[in-house]
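dude i think i finally got it to work??
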Amino acid sequence: MKRKRTRTTKATPPAAALRAARPLGGRTAAAFAPGVKAKHVEGIAIRPAQAADIAQVIALDAQITGIEKSDYWRGIYQRFVKQRQQANEKDQFFLVAAAAAGAHAGSVLGFIRGEIRAWEFGSAPCGWAYALSVRPDARLRGIGQALLDGLTAEFKKSGVTRMRTMVARDNRLHLLFFRASGMTAGPYIELEKDLS
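look at this
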């Protein structure tokens, strides 16, 4: 009787290993916010979102999710970012990764949105990462990590010591990314009910 030969394949490496395998070029320190420094990919500036960025954020989000949400993103910027900045409230953060030089200077390559929430269901104050997207043609260059590092720095500056996010079970890309960034299952379970 002949034995069947089985072929072994290597497991897909986590996102951090993929990033580490690709050279990022020279890394330098750049200011994410006044007084906060973090590493970033050379030629990319991580900075607070500006009104001029919102059209690009809308287009990138629509490209990734397949849903155009212009009213949502304009509202997020207006209500939660611009108004709170004017009131000097430091609990909302909306950062973009933009090309810093060259023909594409100012082009938004990615964005992250987060806020500090407190005491829902007894949860002590913590930072929440609500949205993170990087243009598909700009991935595996460290941009997502630079955005997450920028948001983390803002949370730390505000005094919180824990960060949370929510990931769809079938979103392997985000799950691998956040796990490779050190995030693990937390103490809460999300429950839902169809109301139709």
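Residues 4-39 have pLDDT under 50 and may be disordered.
im so relieved honestly
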